[in-house]
């Protein structure tokens, strides 16, 4: 049997943060759980988890086992719960996927990469430190730069605007597709699809 995958959606805990741009990673995991028809439950690693078979393999067999995880810690200390889950499941770093908001990507775009810098994202920095590696896959969900002189720290902790909310279901759907494609077909295939120019 192949190793399971661990897919982590970053955000802050509690209803006050649920609609924030910073929580878009957790929104994507909610979409993946909805597709699989499962609910999240608590886990001793300080995360909400859902155990799913993601996607469908050629021939109709269920896709690989994936643990969806939403840390119950604040974003800046996400690494502890992620490292605990990875150790508990014995998930190697090449089967760890982190879904997160990304200021440096235009709103509604999805980009993927393995490794590299954290770009000032404290959630990623915490995970890299806790798991001892940067070589995990990142599904980067574009939220765009803040308008005018708005502080980025304030921007990410506000809910999506009215116009953004109209596109949000499409964005969450695309990011969930990207996660499924990484698990089923590999990072390179997902990059080819999501990084291709439109038109």
From TrEMBL:
Known catalytic reactions: an N-acyl-L-alpha-aminoacyl-tRNA + H2O = an N-acyl-L-amino acid + a tRNA + H(+)
- Its signal peptide is none
Instruction: Tell me yes or no: is Calcium among this UniProt entry's keywords.
Output: no
Q: Cite the active-site annotation.
A: 22 (proton acceptor)
User: Which of UniProt's keywords are assigned here?
Assistant: Cytoplasm, Hydrolase, RNA-binding, tRNA-binding
GO cellular component terms given for this protein = cytoplasm
Fetch the SUPFAM superfamilies from UniProt.
Peptidyl-tRNA hydrolase-like
Name where it's found. Answer: Cytoplasm
Subunit details: Monomer.
Annotated protein name in UniProt: Peptidyl-tRNA hydrolase
């Amino acid at each position: 049997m192949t190793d399971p995958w661990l897919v982590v959606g970053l955000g802050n805990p509690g209803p006050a943060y649920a609609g924030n741009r910073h929580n878009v990673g957790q929104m994507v995991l909610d979409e993946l759980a909805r597709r699989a028809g499962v609910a999240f439950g608590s886990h001793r690693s300080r995360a909400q988890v859902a155990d799913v078979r993601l996607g469908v393999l050629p021939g109709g067999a269920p896709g690989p086992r994936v643990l969806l995880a939403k840390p119950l810690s604040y974003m800046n200390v996400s690494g502890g719960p992620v490292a605990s889950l990875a150790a508990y499941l014995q998930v190697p770093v090449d089967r760890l996927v982190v879904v997160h908001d990304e200021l440096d990507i235009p709103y509604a775009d999805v980009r993927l990469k393995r490794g590299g810098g954290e770009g000032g994202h404290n959630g990623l920095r915490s995970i890299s430190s806790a798991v001892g590696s940067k070589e995990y896959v990142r599904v980067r969900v574009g939220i765009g730069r803040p308008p005018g002189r708005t502080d980025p720290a304030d921007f990410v902790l506000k809910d999506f605007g009215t116009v953004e909310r109209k596109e949000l279901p499409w964005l969450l759907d695309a990011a969930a597709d990207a996660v499924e494609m990484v698990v089923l077909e590999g990072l390179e295939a997902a990059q080819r699809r999501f990084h291709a120019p439109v038109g």
